[in-house]
Design brief:
It is a single chain. The protein has one domain: Class I glutamine amidotransferase (GATase) domain (Rossmann fold, 3-Layer(aba) Sandwich), CATH 3.40.50.880. The C terminus is likely disordered. The chain has 5 helices and 12 strands. The strands form 3 sheets. A 7-stranded mixed β-sheet has the order 2-1-3-4-12-11-10, with helices on both faces. It has a 3-stranded mixed β-sheet with strand order 5-6-9. It has a two-stranded antiparallel sheet with strand order 7-8. The longest helix has 14 residues. The chain is globular and about 40 Å long. By secondary structure, it is of the alpha/beta class. The protein starts with a strand and ends in an 8-residue tail after the last helix.
């Protein structure tokens, strides 16, 4: 079986996400055909979507200009999975606490941009993630903080007292970059296990 995965490729770690979804699919005996999305018309053919990091104001502007944002909303409304990481999470959120970011409102959360500091304050940390048996080696790079979540949002992981990974329906959002490790378990959690185990 082949899974059709789309990586929104206006910014961010496109090839790393593509590699991670291929590894996650292979663990389930499936192939992943990956499409890089830079224009409208491609999202409707995708089974799963990835919204990588980058610069959230630029990403949101490009998604709106190219008409991709509405297609991503329709994808999620249809119950199809989306993994949004770092700046992708900011764009997917309900409120970015920044009027320059045109959010998609897919995750019922308020997110503070660059809450963990500037580039020099990037770090790695072992995270206990709901549904994973062993800690995940999370890479934080100018990471956003999930400041507030709605009642229907499941917190999958916390760091320093705040949520850094959440699930809202078919959407998984992370403050960190799961694609920057050889560990594809977060992609597996987002796309192949729709309901995370309760810790």
């Amino acid at each position: 079986m082949t899974i059709h995965a789309g990586v929104v490729a206006v910014q961010g770690d496109v090839s790393e996400h593509a590699d991670a979804i291929r590894r996650a699919a292979a663990e389930h005996g499936e192939d992943a055909e990956v499409t890089e999305i830079r224009r409208a018309g491609l999202v409707p053919d995708c089974d799963v979507l990835l919204l990588p990091g980058g610069e959230s104001t630029a990403i949101s502007r490009l998604l709106a200009r190219e008409g991709i944002g509405e297609e991503i909303r329709a994808h999620v409304d249809a119950g199809k999975p989306l993994l949004a990481t770092c700046a992708g999470l900011i764009v997917a959120s309900r409120d970015a606490n920044d009027d320059r970011v045109q959010t998609l409102g897919l995750v019922d959360a308020t997110v503070d941009r660059n809450a963990f500091g500037r580039q020099k304050d990037s770090f790695e940390a072992p995270l206990d993630v709901a549904g994973l048996d062993e800690p995940f080696p999370a890479v934080f790079i100018r990471a956003p903080l999930i400041a507030e979540v709605g009642d229907g949002v499941e917190v999958l992981a916390t760091w320093d007292g705040g949520p850094v990974a959440v699930r809202d329906g078919p959407v998984v959002g992370t403050s960190f970059h799961p694609e920057l490790t050889a560990d594809s378990r977060v992609h597996d959690l987002a796309f192949f296990r729709q309901q995370a185990a309760t810790r």
